[in-house]
Amino acid sequence: MKFRFSLLVLAALITLSFSTGKAQAQGDKIYEKGIKSTVWIVVSKKGTMGSGSLIDYKQRLVLTNYHVVTDAATVSVMFPIYDPATKEMLKLREDYFEKLRQNYGYVGKVLFAEKKRDLALIQLSPNAKLPAGTEAVELADKSPNPGERVHSIGSPGASKSLFVYTPGNCRQVYNVRSLVGSGADPSDNFEVNCRMIETDSQVNQGDSGGPLFNDKGQQIGVTESFSSGRAMSHFVDLAEIKDLLKEHKIKLTPKNDSDKKDLAKNESLLKPLKEEPKPTEEKPATPQETEKKDPPKKNPASEKDEKAAKQQLGFIKSMLAVGQKDKARDRINKLLKDYPDTEAAKDAKDILKTIDQ
User: Fold this and answer.
1) Nearest Cα residue to 135 out of 76, 203, 58, 250
2) Contact at 8 Å (CB) between 248 and 121?
3) Are 32 and 25 in contact (CB under 8 A)?
4) Residue 267 phi/psi, 5° resolution?
5) Which of 43, 68, 271, 342 has its CA 20 to 30 A from that of 148?
6) Can you list the residues of the chain whose pLDDT is less than 70?
């Protein structure tokens, strides 16, 4: 009897080991496929970060959360970067911050952002040359069933790395109505009322907006929120994504790119982002007009310096958002040294006071 019981235990352990190994192998494949369409999003205006997915290569459309972009008109978008020498993907967050400082990445225009579904669509310039190997993720035909395995990729603020893989299982799919926000500022809170996928995935802040995949590597949801202290997370369901695109009359480009008529319907979305208008030449002022004008400010900062300082300030806010106070302090001191007469320098001084308190 004991011998038979031992055999049953051994068989169970072998089955469990086989299942775990199979799931791990599946996760490896999903990550390898999904990383080609996953992006990191930085909103310099607010110093916030999130994730997203490229859902249309031809039209350069990126899907994310409303609460990642909020009221921003443009955002910075970065795909995984590979070391040309080793061919390995850069993993550390600081490496990507450094690349941003070197003007790597893409400017994305927020086409629309919807609070109710907590979804937003970003468009990169159609003329932008995307990294080699980049692919658009395919949307699945149907939502997951309870018990199905799911996989997500994002860039959690708690991690020093970007493009992190998280496994999980679908628990249920149902409509959720709740208040979403940081809690620090009530004005940032908004109500979400849409169909959600509940999973046991352990996602974190910063994963928001990233894709949720099924075992085929197709997107079935968008990372939306998590419950602190509990292995329970919510993802905006596939049905909401499709309804959003339908309501805004956006038809995704077919994989074989043969349907030219459908592509032509989205012509308005295929125009490059408008460049900032060039300053118009002003007529020389008369002596009388010159007297009326205020005296010029001392050492005014150039437009180029203002822009560069503002970008640095965005990086500083991003660092503070993930708790990197020491690095933020060093970056502030550098900003004050390089661009002392800019408006961003004034804001940086105020931020420095709060850090040192």
Assistant:
1) 58
2) yes
3) no
4) -55, -35
5) 68
6) 1-25, 182-187, 228-229, 256-300, 321-323, 357
Q: What is the CATH number of the domain that holds 328?
A: 1.25.40.10
Q: Which of 239, 267, 284 corresponds to the end of one domain?
A: 239
* CATH code: domain of residue 228: 2.40.10.10
Q: Where are the beta strands (DSSP E) in 4-69?
A: 38-43, 48-56, 61-64
Q: Which long-range contacts (CB under 8 A, 24 or more apart) does 257-264 make?
A: 257/58, 263/58, 263/59
Our measurement of the distance from residue 131's CA atom to the centroid of its chain's CA atoms, rounded to an integer in Å, reads 17
Which residues, including other chains, have CB under 8 Å from residue 320's CB and lie 6 or more apart? 47, 328, 351, 355
User: What number of helices (H) and strands (E) belong to the chain?
Assistant: 9, 12
Residues in the chain: 357
Residue 255 belongs to some domain of the structure = no
Q: How far apart are CA 217 and CA 38, in angstroms?
A: 12
- Looking at residue 267, its pLDDT comes to 37
E-strand ranges in 116-232 read 119-124, 149-154, 164-180, 190-199, 211-213, 219-226
| Domain hosting residue 228, numbered range | 149-239
As for how many domains the chain has, the answer is 2
| Amino acid identity, position 54 | L
Task: Give 181-221 pLDDT, tens digit per residue.
Answer: 755 566 678 999 999 999 999 998 889 999 999 999 999 99
The pLDDT value recorded for residue 296 is: 52
Does residue 85 sit within a domain?
no
CA distances from 55 to 33, 52, 139 (A): 13, 9, 8
pLDDT at 351: 83
Separation of alpha carbons 113 and 121, rounded Å: 6
What's the whole-model pTM score?
0.72
Share of the chain above pLDDT 90, in %: 52
- Beta strand pairing call for 211-213 and 149-154: antiparallel
Secondary structure class of 227 (helix, strand, coil): coil
| CA angle (198 as vertex; 196, 200 as ends), nearest 5 | 155
| Domain membership flag for residue 274 | no
